[in-house]
């Protein structure tokens, strides 16, 4: 029973870190898009 719990905890941890990583990438992508838009707006006189 203990082994199953450890495996489940490890899986949970992996899933969580995957989600955090995905969130980070999403945030970076959104930031990139926002920065691009700002640059484009600055180029327009």
Explain how this protein is built.
This protein is mostly helical. The chain has one domain. It is 93% helix and 0% strand. It is built from one helix and no strands. The chain has one helix at residues 2-43. The longest helix has 42 residues, at 2-43.
Query: Count of DSSP helices?
Result: 1
Whole-number total of structural domains? 1
Helix/strand-derived category reads mainly alpha
Mean pLDDT: 91
Major β-sheet, in short? none
* Outline: rod-shaped
Poorly predicted segments: none
Can you write the helix and strand succession as a string?
Answer: H
Oligomer: single chain
Distance between the termini: 68 Å
Topology:
Elements: H1 2-43
Keywords:
about 45 residues; mainly alpha; single chain; 1 helix; rod-shaped
Brief digest:
It is built from one helix and no strands.
């Amino acid at each position: 029973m203990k082994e199953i719990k450890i495996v489940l905890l490890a899986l949970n941890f992996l899933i969580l870190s995957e989600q955090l990583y995905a969130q980070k990438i999403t945030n970076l992508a959104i930031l990139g898009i926002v920065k691009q838009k700002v640059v484009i707006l600055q180029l327009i006189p």
